[in-house]
Amino acid sequence: MDYFNKMRGTTQSPPGVNFPEIIWSWIGAFAGIAAVSYSHYTFFAQTDMAMIIGSFGASAVLLYGAIKSPLAQPRNLMGGHILSAIIGVCAYKLFSGQMWLASSVAVATAIAVMHATRTLHPPGGATSLIAVIGSQKIHSLGFFYVVMPVGLGALIMLVVALLVNNIPEKRRYPEFWF
């Protein structure tokens, strides 16, 4: 019975967020995703290159909506995405004949490595999974996937986070770099 009692939770829901915080989160997310997707659709749409991946949506939630979270800090953003991308590409190359195995190995290993390197960034799990289950366009990038879209896209979102999150007097980003 204790096992099931743990599922009830121990705390209440977090408090609501004030309206200015909501607006600044929206502005940051809009600007960050706009910068990455504009680059994609302007410079790479007609090529085999990609600049935007789904996990950047989750990164936007952290970078612009939860800026004090340790998971949203530059070390976690860059390290989490880049390490997870490397792991995802390796998992695909090693186990592409068994996609269920490649997917499982990619995400589980990405989480373990992010923990071990203190770079835990939940969207990194999605980044590793995208390397495995992504389109032929993603697979054809091979390890270049780590550089672009992952590294460059995360860097663009980081620059936007630095610029936007420090405009309001009551917001400060980052909490730490390393």
Radius of gyration: 17 Å
The helix/strand order is HHHHHHHH
Low-confidence stretches: none
Number of DSSP-assigned strands: 0
Q: Helical residue percent?
A: 55-70%
How many helical elements?
8
* Inertia-based shape: globular
- Biggest β-sheet description: none
End-to-end separation: 42 Å
Instruction: Count up the domains.
Output: 1
Which structural class do you get from the secondary structure elements?
mainly alpha
The share of residues in extended strands comes to under 5%
Average pLDDT figure: 95
What does this structure look like?
This protein has one domain. The chain starts with a helix and ends in a 13-residue tail after the last helix. The chain has helices spanning 2-5, 19-44, 55-65, 74-95, 99-116, 123-133, 136-141, 144-165. The protein is globular, with a radius of gyration of 17 Å. The longest helix has 26 residues, at 19-44. The mean pLDDT is 95. With 178 residues, it is mainly α. It has eight helices and no strands. Helix 2 packs antiparallel against helix 3, helix 2 packs antiparallel against helix 8 and helix 3 runs antiparallel to helix 6.
Give a quick precis of the structure.
The chain is built from 8 helices and no strands. The protein has helices spanning 2-5, 19-44, 55-65, 74-95, 99-116, 123-133, 136-141, 144-165.
Task: Please describe the structure with a list of short key phrases separated by commas or semicolons.
single chain; 178 residues; mainly alpha; 8 helices; 0% strand
Which secondary structure elements does this structure contain, and how are they paired or packed?
Blueprint: H1 2-5, H2 19-44, H3 55-65, H4 74-95, H5 99-116, H6 123-133, H7 136-141, H8 144-165
Helix pairs in contact: 2-3, 2-8, 3-6, 3-8, 4-5, 4-6, 4-8, 5-6
